Every structure is written in structure tokens, then in C-alpha cells.
Amino acid sequence: MKKSLIALSALLMLGGTAHAQKVAFEEYDLPNGLHVILHNDPSAPVVITSVMYHVGAKDENPERTGFAHFFEHLLFEGTENIKRGEWFKIVTGNGGVNNANTTDDRTYYYEVFPSNNLELGLWMEAERMYHPVINQIGVDTQNEVVKEEKRLRVDNQPYGQILAEVKKNMFKVHPYRWATIGSMDHLDAAKLEEFQAFFKKFYIPNNAVLVVAGDFEKAQAKKWIQKYFGAIPKGTPITRQTYTEAPITTTIKAEFQDPNIQLPMLISSYRTPSMKTRDARVLDMISTILSDGKSSRLYKKIVDDKKVALELGAISFNQEDYGTYIIYGLPQAPNTSEDFIREIDEEILKLQNELISEKEMQKLQNKYENQFVNQNSTIEGIADNLATFYMLYGDINLINTEIDIYRSITREEIRDVAKKYLNPNQRLLLDYIPSKDKAQN
């Protein structure tokens, strides 16, 4: 149900399989404010320890973008008790895997170990929270790592700037307007004290949730959690600013030149409400109808039947405060971008004025039932969902009940929500074209 333009969370499928049954969990708070969630599943001898911090790119200073993503890397540098360069050796040497990922809304770290190494996983995450070594050597090292990542994934990647350009044009006041990876100039200009202050503000127990999921003994896990996390002092409560974007009432037109491409692309993007809303879930279904896969309405008509475009895709980019629905395609000559967008508008208009068939609705519901089962089919997936539903949605039991929201969506709602959000005067049209300098050479 939730899709991402870049798969930042490619978790390894090591955990035991869950079935379409209720996900049982226990939750409690430590005195320092750390929220703890325990999910026991003895079906495979593995355990995941994960910590999600409520800090992402939207929490950054506009003159220091990229800090949250930078810390995704920096907090693997080492701690007072884990020497620099030893983190990954300890994990792999004990039969585990680990990773981290960052979005505009949160940062997530995790380890998957054989179940007899739960204490090790808890100790390592507590070390990351309590005793990280944030020094100039680590900052300089990870600065080069992030620059290389940006070169590979963004600067030198064909169409690698799409999301950044969409965000820049869709948001004027909200911090979603800058790219999660941030500005390299900002990172270069930052002093060590700024990194240390960012850590002190956000990487605190009362801004985090710890999830333990898999094969473990609860009583023992609770003792270890108290032992390693209980002594970490509570941080200063975080005051978050609320940003409200003015409605888009006139088509935004923009252009971006990419030296890495030869074929122009047209992007049509609509601002959507918070992923916590019912409308966002209806828009998920609309995205599936219009553009999810080669059997979708837009792909079948525009690519297969009329051959107006060589390729077409879409993403429903759901976030905590606002979302973005992005449709993109490569117009096929002699068709133009105008032809491409006209075909899209015709299909959206049809959705706004005609109810989808009962057969199509049933197919849609079946697809969401299947996605629901798959999202909770591994220990890693369950841990991620437990943390996300607690931290970003404020309702952890959505891991069991969100499917009921999708089940209750009607054909009439699909029509009405399409009318509400997907209109030509409410969108961005971005011409994403080859560099003109390149074209002249």
C-alpha cells in the first residue's frame, strides 16, 4: 500500500513467515521516554532489534540540509565501546546483518541476529544512542561516503533528479521541499559542533521507539532492555513546527535539464494529504487503478494501445504531513508531451465521472488483501511496520486494522476523491529534458 520512489528499505528476508493473522505485540515505556514494542514469533531462530528515531530531512535547518541522512551513515562509525570500523565486523562475525535508512520523516536502524544474540543487538543499539563517537575523523570520512552516494544515485543517474525537482516545485514552505540526501555544500560548511548538537537534540530515548521481534524470551528481553537502555538520560522534549502549504490552484510549470538522459520525460504531480488520512488511502487505490503495473488503465491505453509513450509509471509517495502522487512517462515520437498529458487527463476524467465496475473493485480489494499479508510476512517487515505505525501514525494497532480501512472504501469514494485532488489546476507539470548544451554538441 505504501510505495517509495527509491527503495531505501530493502530488508533481507531472513525472518520467519507470518500469516494473515493478528500480529500480537506488547508495548511499554521506560522512565526515560523510550517506547518499547515486543513481538514474539518463535517460528524461526532469528531476532531483530530495531530503533526508529522521529527525525528526518524535514527536521533540518534549511541551511544545513542532509543532516538526518548523514547521521544514518555517521552512527555506524563507532562508539566509546565499539572501535571505529568494528561495527560491521561485530555484526557479521556473530551471524547477523544490519542496515539503516532515512526518509523525510524518520530514521531507522536495525540488526537481524540468530536468536541467541539478542543481548548483543540490544547492547549495540544502546551504544549507538548513548555513546556514539562523533568526531572530525568520522565526519570527514562519511562526508566522502555521502558525496559518492549522491554521485552514483543522483548526479550521474539518468532521471536521478526527478523526486528532488518535484519536491522543490510542489512545496514552498514545508521542509519537504529539499532532497533527503541534502546539499553537499551544507555538509561541507557544517562544523563538528553542529553535528554534535543535532545528535543531542534528536537521538534521544524520548524521540525513539525500540522494537524487538522474533524468537526470544520476553522476561529476559525486558531485563536486557532495562540494563542497556534504562540508564540513558531523557532528552529535552522536541518542539516541532507545523508547516501549512497553500492549496495549488493553478498549474505549476517547470523545466529541468538532465545531462544524463537522451529522451525527454514529462512528470505530472499532485499534492495529496497526510498518509494518516482516509483520503490518502483512497488515493492509494486510485494510483493502483490508474498506474500500478502493465494492466493498469494508463499503461494499457497510453503505452500498449495508443503507443503515445515508450514507458509510463507512477508513484504514490506517502508521507507524514503531505503526500505526492507522481505520474511520469517518455512520450513516443511523433507524439508530444501535450499528447501524453491529454491522454492522462482523459483517464482521470473518466475516473472522476464514472464508477469503476464491481468486478474492478473486487480485483482491487484482492490486491490490497495480498499486499497486507505480504507486508507482515517477515519478522523484518513486522518490526518496521510496528515502529512506523507507532511513530508516524500514532496508532500501532493499524498493523492489524489498516486493511479494514481499505476494505471499507467504496466506488463512490474513489470517484469523489479523484475529483477532489486530481485536477489540472492542482498539479505540477515538469518537463524533464536532456541538457540543451549536450543536445547542441
Automatic annotation (TrEMBL):
Domain Peptidase M16 N-terminal intervals: 36-176
Pfam families in the cross-refs: Peptidase_M16 (PF00675), Peptidase_M16_C (PF05193)
Domain (Peptidase M16 C-terminal): residue spans on this chain: 192-367
Signal peptide: 1-20
UniProt keyword list: Hydrolase, Metalloprotease, Protease, Signal, Zinc
InterPro entries from the UniProt entry: Metalloenz_LuxS/M16, Pept_M16_N, Peptidase_M16, Peptidase_M16_C
Top-level taxon: Bacteria
Family listed: Belongs to the peptidase M16 family.
Name of the featured protein: Pitrilysin family protein
